[in-house]
Amino acid sequence: MAWLYLLVASFGEILGVASINMYLKRKSWWWLLVVILVFSFGFYFLALAMREIPLATAYAIWTGLGAVGAVLMGVLFFKETMTRPRLLFLTCIISGAVGLQIVS
């Protein structure tokens, strides 16, 4: 169940970054409230996941999925470009998170 919590927390991170982007575009109190609520939701599920998953593992997976998801969200929904360097660094993030699991 902890891994499911971690996955939900990662989606909170992804949606939180997307809501920051919406707040910066619209500058409304509504989007600021959404940012606070979505990140709070994600942090809550991260805390639940960390009851069973070690801190280093949970944080690495959470930030890795959040970073990759946020970049993909930017490319798919906010029309950001996917360049080769960006793809290379995404691969490094994923490889690092996977490598952490193999070593642990």
- Indicate the mean pLDDT: 89
Structural class: mainly alpha
Q: Provide the low-confidence segments as ranges.
A: none
Helix content: over 70%
- Percent in strands: under 5%
Spell out the helices and strands N to C.
HHHH
| Radius of gyration, taken over Cα atoms and rounded to an integer in Å | 15 Å
Number of helices, counting only DSSP H or I runs of 4 residues or more:
4
Number of strands: 0
How far the N terminus sits from the C terminus, by CA atoms, comes to 19 Å
Overall structural domain count: 1
Largest sheet composition: none
Overall morphology: flat
Descriptors for this entry?
flat; 86% helix; 104 residues; mainly alpha
